[in-house]
Design a protein that fits this description.
Distance between the termini: 28 Å
Largest sheet: 6 strands, antiparallel
Helix content: under 10%
Oligomer: single chain
Number of strands: 13
Structural class: mainly beta
Amino acid sequence: MKQQMIATVTAAVLAGPWAASAEASSSVRPITRFADLPDVVRADIEPDDGDCHIEEQGLAYGDALEVTGQTGKRLIIVPCGQAGAYNMPFAIYGGYGNHISRTVFPLKFSETTGDTAFNIRYDATERRFTSFAKGRGMGDCGSYYVWRIAEPDNTDFLVLEEVRIKEECDARADGGPATWPLVWKRQ
């Protein structure tokens, strides 16, 4: 379990303090076909030897999306490779206009970066991304990360808000991952 937690921490996504800004008025677009993606993203996921190869029908589940802010900042989230029994890896691409590249998910604990995160969800109302990496299928343990879109003047795309981890797989959901023990919170 601890090795999985370490691996999950290295796959975390960033989010940061949110103040009213131009990015607050972002639009969300689901991506359901390879043709809906910029060429650089397609080059990673479409070919069999791509870093994040998936089959096109994998986009049909509604997990791939693009968030675009008024300043032109684009974040594209796509499934990345094969899913495990209950954890799906995702990659994030960021940029402005047609200048998109794969970006990393900065991490708090090790001051390193990771290029995938698990079970990513975006809440447009809260303007936040979450990652819930399950320690096992029933979801009674694992890790939970929350990120916000970085302000336009920030060179990062996401900023980490909080990390919650529940190591004991005890068959109790304890209110879900958003209520698990807080390990780190942005001040």
